[in-house]
Design goal:
Elements (H helix, E strand, L loop, with lengths): L3 H28 L12 H19 L11 H14 L1 H4 L8 H5 L15 H10 L15 H13 L5 H7 L3 H23 L2
Helix pairs in contact: 2-6, 3-7, 3-9, 6-7
């Protein structure tokens, strides 16, 4: 067993190390030494830490999400196609789509779903609903119902199997369909507001 003096020495060493690291971090933050420009990648250690934080945070929060049994429903996939084209494709691209100005300027780069995605359906839904801090991924949950977000997830999971021609065919009316969907959502919100006054 370690003696009392030995234990106190270890504790003191850990405290001093912690304070030193904290002071160094404080100086780095206040000096502006760390470059946060999107065109300059993180250092290796910081990139690794952020990746680990993101991965585990998503996994933990997605555990309680119940995945609908009909993600392979063609109607659900078709509904998600138009929303993906309007809301997601500028960052995440699509089969046959060239890199956009937006996608090329993102850091971290948005995953290209046509190449596949390692996340589970529940994890994908959580990300679409809540977004991710310090990336360009917005939270769509505050402005879109769960059903529509699941439609997008259904389409994302289908995307790697689509050719450029198939994608183009499925999203040909995307702008009009998305506009109609937004009008319907706005009408439902207005109706809800009217009801709340009664």
């Amino acid at each position: 067993m370690l003696g009392t003096s030995r234990i106190l020495t270890v504790i003191a060493t850990l405290v001093i190390a912690g304070v030193t690291v904290g002071l160094i971090g404080f100086v780095v933050v206040l000096s502006g030494a760390y470059n946060i420009a999107a065109d300059v990648p993180h250092t290796g250690p910081i990139a690794s830490v952020l990746q680990a934080v993101r991965t585990h945070a998503i996994q933990v929060r997605a555990k309680s999400i119940i995945v609908p049994p009909n993600l392979n429903d063609p109607e659900r996939i078709a509904a998600g196609a138009s929303e993906y084209a309007e809301m997601c494709s500028q960052c995440h691209l699509a089969p046959g789509m060239e890199k956009t100005e937006i996608s090329q300027g993102l850091y971290p780069a948005a995953p290209e779903f046509a190449r596949g995605d390692p996340l589970s359906p529940a994890e994908q839904f959580w990300v679409v609903e809540h977004g991710i801090k310090f990336t360009s991924m917005p939270a769509w949950g505050p402005t879109h119902p769960d059903g529509l977000l699941w439609d997008i997830v259904a389409f994302i999971r289908k995307l790697p199997m689509l050719s450029a021609t198939q994608y183009k065919s499925m999203t040909a009316q995307a702008s009009e369909e998305h506009e109609n969907m937004m009008k319907d959502m706005s009408g439902m919100a207005d109706h809800h507001d009217d009801d709340s006054h009664h």
